[in-house]
Structure formats: C-alpha cells, structure tokens
Design brief:
This protein has 328 residues and is an alpha+beta fold. The protein has helices spanning 16-24, 53-65, 68-71, 85-93, 104-114, 119-138, 141-150, 154-165, 169-199, 206-209, 223-241, 257-270, 273-307; strands at 4-11, 29-39, 44-52, 73-79.
C-alpha cells in the first residue's frame, strides 16, 4: 500500500506555473490537479497533489523557497488509502521508504501545537499526577499505568529536542515553559489533594515507610532508570516521525516522570524529605535521559535523511526571496 501525503497548495497566480512544474517533475508525484482562481483568501490558484511521503519534505522545501508559504499556503494530510497504479509507481520511483521518511515541517508543526501551554495540557498532566498519587498511596500498578497513559508531557520534551536540532528558540521557550508550569502546577495541586486526604484520615505518614512492591521503583533511581528513559525517548521520537508507529505511542512515554512528580507531591504533604529527594532525582534522571535520547534520535534521522538522494533540482529561475528558513 503506497504511503502518500495530500498536498493542497494555495499559489499566487504568478507562481502557479513554477509550482506545477515542480510537482510535475517530482518522481514521487502520483496525482496532480490545478484549479485556477479557486482560492479566495488569499487570492490565487489551488494546486493539489498526492505525493509519496518520502518526496514530501523536499517538495515542501522547494515550495517555501518559491515563497508559497509566505504569499499563499501549504497544507498536508495523510492519505489513508490510494487505489491507483500511478500511486504505486510514484512510491517505487521516490527515493527511500515512505514509512521511514520524515516530513520535518509536519513534525515541527505537530510538536509546536502539542507542546503549547493550554488548559487541556494542564488538565491532563494534573489528572495524571493525581491518579499517580492515588496509585502510590494504594500501591497499585494498574492505576499507575493508567496515569502514565494520560500524561501529555512527552510533547514538550520532544519540542525541546526538536528546537535544539532545528534551532527554533521560540519552540524551545514554549516547550520549556509548558514543562515547568505544567509540572509545577500538577505537583502543587496534588500536594493540596494529598494534604486533604491526610486531614480526612484516609492515610498518614505510614505511606512513606510502607513496603510498596508495585510502585516502590518510583523512588529508587538507578542505572535501569537511565536505560528505560533512553529507550522511551527513542520510541517516542520514532512514534512522532514515523508513518507506521501508532499515534498514541508518545503518550506512554511518561515512564516515571509523572509518577515521580506525584511522589514528590505526596512526600511534600506527608513531610518526607528523603522521599522527596529520591523522587526529584528520579524525575531529573528521566527527563534528562528522554531529552538526550530524543536529541540523538532526531539528529541521526536528520543526518540519514539528508543522505537520501532527492532527485529534485531546486527551482532557481525567477524565484522570489525565501519566506524564512526551512526546517531541514
């Protein structure tokens, strides 16, 4: 089954011929259509194409160099199924493999949106931390796993790594703010909830000394914590950039970040200074491990994908000034 992306390009009329030529001579273009004057805002022509995923990144780069992103617009969406001989031929001609191809502009835009400091992000992170606190008090692995599924913190972690690899300081600031504010708020609210539970007599300081067979690993950082964090970071990035990995893989990469934050809150509420220190260490180890692995994976993908022979000459004749740096 061909792995295609549908490109919808709003083009100023003076550049329609260049865009059509660019798409037409790309070996990965399967279907191409032009609707003159179809765009109202911004005014211009509408060019639509189904292209092999492995050709999309180079095409978007060239469209940006033609100033289309500045004066028109480029949208991308995955094609779920394409029953077409032309699509199969395009997939065969395009260099590389569609499942492994990285469309950097798509990755950057997705990560930027997912790492924003929004109400839903704060709500999910706080709820996940509260659930982890309940799991710690009751020593429940099932609740812990459920909380890790809810944790949305991998998006800003990936955003930080992506910002470093592609030199996007605005994305780094946004992702760093989301992490700091998100974890700060989640820990504060979970601490208040734990204080309320203690005041109601639901649990006491015995939680700090209890033998927790299912959740005790949260406050036992060791070399395996580093290994797990690194593997989680690699898996999370691959889920973000790959066409075949399930979209939900990223949300399982809480590992022990959210649980450690919850344990910090419980320790604050119960006066466990030692417990708080171990949980904070676990959180730091996991965040650092995930970030390092994400950085290495993204840098490797970028280097490898640049070596793929994109048989697509640049459009240089009569091209307007670039509309900004491309993400590659």
């Amino acid at each position: 089954m061909p792995v295609l992306l549908h490109l919808r390009v709003t083009v100023p009329p003076d550049r329609t011929d260049d865009v059509v030529e660019l798409l037409g001579r790309s070996p990965g273009t399967a279907h191409l259509a032009v609707l003159p004057g179809a765009s109202v805002a911004p005014p211009g022509d509408l060019v639509m194409a189904d292209v092999a995923r492995e050709s999309a990144d180079a095409l978007v780069d060239e469209l940006r160099r033609l100033g289309v992103a500045r004066d028109g617009g480029i949208t991308m969406e995955a094609v779920d199924a394409a029953v077409s001989t032309a699509a199969e031929r395009a997939e065969e001609r395009a260099p590389g493999d569609g499942a492994d191809a990285v469309v950097w502009e798509q990755v950057v835009r997705t990560t930027d949106a997912d790492s924003a400091l929004s109400a839903s992000y704060l709500a999910f992170l706080t709820i996940a931390t509260l659930l982890c606190a309940v799991a710690i008090v009751n020593d429940s692995a099932v609740l812990l796993i459920g909380a890790m599924v809810l944790g949305p913190e991998f998006a800003p972690l990936a955003g930080l790594a992506l910002a470093v690899v592609h030199r996007r300081p605005s994305l780094a600031r946004q992702a760093g703010t989301s992490l700091a504010v998100g974890f700060g708020l989640a820990i504060a609210l979970t601490t208040l909830a734990a204080l309320a539970g203690r005041a109601l007599g639901w649990f006491g300081t015995e939680v700090l000394t209890a033998e927790r067979a299912e959740t005790g690993f949260i406050t036992a950082p060791d070399r395996w914590s580093v290994v797990v964090a690194v593997l989680a970071g690699v898996a999370g990035v691959l889920s973000l950039t790959s066409a075949k990995s399930g979209a939900l893989v990223g949300v399982f990469i809480s590992v022990t970040t959210v649980p450690a934050a919850a344990d910090m809150a419980v320790a604050l509420a119960l006066g466990g200074g030692t417990e708080f220190g171990r949980a904070a260490t676990q959180l730091a180890v996991n965040v650092a491990g995930i970030l390092a692995a994400a950085l290495a994976t993204l840098a490797l993908q970028r280097a490898v994908w640049r070596r793929v022979p994109h048989v697509l000459p640049r459009m240089t004749a009569a091209a307007p000034a670039p509309d900004g740096p491309a993400p590659r």
